[in-house]
Write a structure and sequence with these properties.
Number of strands of chain C: 7
Low-confidence stretches of chain C: none
Strand content of chain C: 25-35%
Oligomer: heterotrimer
Strand order of the largest sheet of chain B: 3-4-5-6
CATH class of chain B: Alpha Beta
Structural class of chain B: alpha/beta
Helix content of chain B: 25-40%
Number of domains of chain B: 1
CATH architecture of chain B: 3-Layer(aba) Sandwich
Distance between the termini of chain B: 51 Å
Number of helices of chain B: 6
Shape of chain C: elongated
Strand content of chain B: 5-15%
Number of helices of chain C: 3
Mean pLDDT of chain B: 88
Number of strands of chain B: 6
Largest sheet of chain C: 5 strands, mixed
Radius of gyration of chain C: 18 Å
CATH superfamily of chain C: NADH:ubiquinone oxidoreductase Nqo5 subunit
Mean pLDDT of chain C: 88
Distance between the termini of chain C: 57 Å
Radius of gyration of chain B: 18 Å
CATH architecture of chain C: 2-Layer Sandwich
Order of helices and strands of chain C: HEEHEEEEHE
CATH class of chain C: Alpha Beta
Low-confidence stretches of chain B: none
Strand order of the largest sheet of chain C: 1-2-5-4-3
Structural class of chain C: alpha/beta
Largest interface: A-C, 40 and 36 residues
Order of helices and strands of chain B: EEHEHEHEHEHH
Chain lengths: 402, 180, 165
């Protein structure tokens, strides 16, 4: 269906240059593709990124550890709690801190909610790009409910800065738990309604089945990870292969596709949302069994003491001063920790020299590495198929440019 | 009795079958209540804009019914998100292509002043390249804050002279930025 | 597939490359070693084809100004079937850091090497299209080197007095 039949007549060399520029309604973020078009077919393309390069890695060399959390928020801003938790776990790995089980389960709940909100946006926008706008509105309403849960836990809606190194800043109160339970109950019917609009819809299937199919060996060669790699048939999920934050205690499936086309990616993300709901329900049950009121590890050297103690207790005051000034003892070592982000393996490579801020911090960003295949992959495609392909890759501009 | 609020009529002389007021006021009223936005969304504030346009905090009820991605057909440019130095010429081009009357809202801390990214590659505020009318602080600002910014812009627009583009101080402002 | 232990890996690598690898360590359980630019492609090929490290996780750089060979290139590889990772470091001189490209082994090295070039100025020989990716094309300096300042020098309203400098 997508064979480049017209490319053989290239002696004519009449191609148009189309600039799918940095500001474009259907590129979800600022990246540019300069495409050579032969009518509606793309002959070749060159991607340019860097239009939102904010130099995170350079800034991180000048900030103490707890001030890097708001930076990590703004990488994949559709699912910022996953970035935050990943960073906290990296520092905990470096310092050798073991968090209590209840903290792990709370982190799992927050991360799975973030994963749901990321996949919501991706599938909704895929719907919008194929021309169906109403499904997106229903999913955005669910996203508002997730924002309400974040607000109850940490006070912010989108760029959450959730948690501290060692746990959380406050326990989830009863309202938060009630909202999470209500969300879990109300979400599945809405998702089923959204599915009925798309999954067996003739038009959607014609537009997405068979488009941009990628085989597993090529995907691995290009270092793809995340739902798009799983759609190609490789069952690599960091949560299952290298469990962190007590994911090994949970019972969940990793959905895997077959051909790697746009339809498979949509179905993998859809199914992952069901699995996330399953994980959240299990986590809520497991939290009931843990001792109440534990929301951080007992590490006064790096976890800020509660304010009542700071004003009354000398040691707490000294710890508070040392932590805020950044005089925390840390070993001279290097650590690489990865978590399963919304788009794939989000890795943090931290080289520490015992000082106030990291010596070098590198983010292995899945959107950046997934996107490099886009230009080679769109050779020979129709323009509208290339747009759908881009939308299914779920490239978040903040994570692309860091 | 419906509780839909209608806009106040401007002060004028009324009679049977006619209503006389100054042209400026009518045009200001019409413009203020139909500002079509150009969402120039680069990063996280763009997601908050999506939430503002959604059903919960509806921006469309204030007249911004049609977000246009074509600069010629838009009235207000909503710059949402960090503008890097690589993106600044693109932003300038988009602003130059907009047809008068045009207004600019800088949404978020990054567009206002560079935000938390005080680095070599981030433009420290879009007012280094284009003139801005309303600044909305926040990181990201809540949808209510973005709505507040749009309402403040509506106040500005309602009270503006009809041909702002011909006034001396506007021309001077644009000259400062090197825009004709 | 059975998980291979770090000891076995060290044995297999040293038995083939004895003198060309050095500085074995295991910070936080991740086997790390250093090598030189002449041996790196052989080592990567050996790891990919014989030891089943099929996945290139990341390529990045680092700058230690006081060391004799200041600029480093750091590779992270991952063997999905055996569930083990490895980190390889290559240190180069500052004036003209050149290293052969890993593009022929993994296509995913394309943009990773461009990003490392953009940040540190490391020339990857044999790369099809080595140019800047994140920063502006006309930039001359390499921003992640330690001597490059973080903040925008043209900003006039930040008074050093108030920022404690």
């Amino acid at each position: 269906m997508n064979e480049p039949a017209i490319i053989q007549n290239l002696e004519r060399k009449e191609t148009t240059t189309l600039n799918l520029g940095p500001t474009h309604p259907s590129t979800h973020g600022v990246f540019q593709n300069v495409l050579e078009m032969d009518g509606e077919r793309i002959v070749s393309g060159v991607s340019t990124i860097g239009y939102i390069h904010r130099a995170f890695e350079k800034i991180a060399e000048h900030r103490p550890f707890y001030q890097i959390t708001p930076l990590t928020d703004r990488m994949n801003y559709c699912s910022s709690p996953i970035n935050n938790m990943g960073w906290h776990m990296t520092v905990e790995k470096m310092l050798g801190i073991q968090t209590p089980k209840r903290v792990d389960y709370m982190r799992v709940i927050v991360m799975e909610l973030a994963r749901i909100s990321d996949h919501l946006v991706c599938n909704g926008i895929l719907g919008v790009d194929t021309g169906a706008y109403s499904g997106f509105l229903y999913l955005m309403e669910k996203r508002e409910h997730i924002y309400e849960i974040y607000e109850e836990i940490c006070g912010a809606r989108l760029t959450t800065n959730i948690g501290r190194i060692g746990g959380f800043e406050r326990d989830f109160n009863d309202i938060a738990f009630a909202k999470i339970r209500k969300f879990v109950k109300d979400y599945v019917p809405v998702l089923k309604e959204f599915e009925e609009l798309f999954t067996r819809n003739r038009i959607f299937m014609d537009r997405t089945v068979g488009i941009a199919a990628v085989d597993a060996q090529t995907a691995l060669d290009y270092s793809w990870t995340g739902p798009i790699l799983r759609a190609c048939g490789v069952d690599y999920d960091v949560r299952a292969s290298e469990p962190y934050s007590s994911y090994e205690d949970f019972d969940f499936d990793v959905p895997v596709g077959t051909t790697g086309d746009v339809y498979d990616r949509y179905m993998v993300r859809n199914e992952e949302m069901y699995q996330s709901i399953r994980i959240i329900e299990q986590a809520l049950d497991k939290i009931e069994k843990e001792p109440k009121g534990v929301f951080h590890a007992d590490v006064p050297e790096i976890y800020l003491p509660p304010k009542e103690e700071v004003y009354n207790n000398m040691e707490a005051l000294i710890y508070h001063f040392k932590i805020v000034m950044g005089e925390v003892d840390s070993p001279t070592t290097e650590v690489y920790h990865c978590v399963e982000g919304g788009n794939g393996e989000l890795g943090f490579y931290l080289v520490n020299d015992g000082g106030r801020s990291p010596y070098r911090l590198h983010f292995r960003r899945p959107s950046f590495i997934n996107y490099q295949m886009y230009a080679p992959m769109s050779r020979g495609m129709l323009l509208s198929d290339a747009i759908i392909n881009l939308s299914s890759l779920n490239v978040i501009a903040g994570e692309l440019d860091a | 009795m419906s509780d839909i609020k209608l806009a106040e009529a401007p002060p004028g002389i009324e009679g049977s079958g006619f209503f006389a007021t100054s042209f400026d006021k009518v045009v200001g009223l019409a413009r203020a209540n139909s500002l079509w936005p150009l969402p120039f969304a680069t990063s996280c504030c763009g997601i908050e804009f999506m939430a503002t346009m959604g059903a919960h905090y509806d921006l469309a009820r204030f007249g911004s019914e049609r977000p246009s991605f074509s600069p010629r057909q838009a009235d207000m440019l909503l710059v949402m998100g960090t503008i890097a130095k690589k993106m600044a010429p693109v932003l300038r081009q988009v602003y130059i292509q907009m047809a008068e009357p045009r207004w600019v809202i800088a949404v978020g801390a990054c567009a206002t002043s560079g935000g938390i990214f005080d680095s070599y590659s981030v433009l420290q505020g879009i007012d280094e390249v284009i003139p801005v009318d309303v600044y909305v602080p926040g990181c990201p600002p809540r949808p209510e804050a973005i709505l507040n910014g749009v309402l403040k812009l509506q106040d500005l627009v309602r009270n503006e002279p009809m041909r702002r583009r011909n006034t001396e101080e506007y021309k001077e402002l644009l000259n400062k930025y090197g825009i004709q | 597939m059975a998980k291979i232990s770090n000891q076995e890996l060290v044995q297999k690598i040293t038995s083939k490359f004895a003198s060309r690898v050095s500085a074995f360590s295991e910070p936080h359980g991740l086997l790390t070693f250093e090598t030189s630019r002449e041996a790196i492609i052989d080592i990567l090929t050996f790891l990919k084809n014989d030891l089943d490290f099929n996945f290139l996780t990341d390529i990045t750089g680092i700058h230690y100004p006081e060391q004799e060979l200041p600029i480093g290139v750091i590779y992270h590889l991952h063997s999905m079937r055996q569930g083990v990772r490895v980190r390889i470091k290559v240190f180069l001189e500052e004036q003209n850091p050149v290293i052969p490209t890993a593009f022929n082994l993994w296509k995913g090295a394309d943009w990773m090497e461009r990003e490392t070039y953009d940040y540190f100025g490391i020339q990857f020989e044999g790369h099809p299209d080595l140019r800047r990716i994140l920063n502006m094309d006309d930039m001359v300096a390499f921003p992640m080197r330690k001597e490059f300042p973080l903040e925008d020098p043209n900003r006039v309203d930040k008074k050093d007095f108030f920022f404690g400098r």
